[in-house]
Predict the structure.
Amino acid sequence: MADTYLVDTSVFLRWFIDQDGYEHAREIQQSFIEGSVALETVDFARIEVAGVLRKKGLLPKRLSRAEFAAAVRVIDDLGVVIHAITADRLEQAADLSARKRLGMYDALFAQLAIERRIPLLTADAKLRTALTPDVETELLRASADPRG
């Protein structure tokens, strides 16, 4: 485990929704709460998390209204370091997006990981492949198969 991670939306979502890799995501969350790992992200991650949690948590009734409302605050409430998307950062991410054929959200996470010289933590295997070898990326471990 690294000392610090740049965390993308896929990891934050797994703090609340049981999708592949959720156990590892929650281990990282617990390590952060205990102070053994630092987490950073981009400012729009909060909005992206809220939108996806509404769709995958609130609407299918996996989360109550109260749980949803609390969940959209968790990045801030736990003290994850949040970085603003500046014009220069946006321009550099656009170049990375064009070179690597990435969506802009993914490129912004990757650009910040490059700038901060910390690994990007994600559940997105395709993103990890696209970024290799330019960006150190750690993929969430798959959850154990309950069938044994």
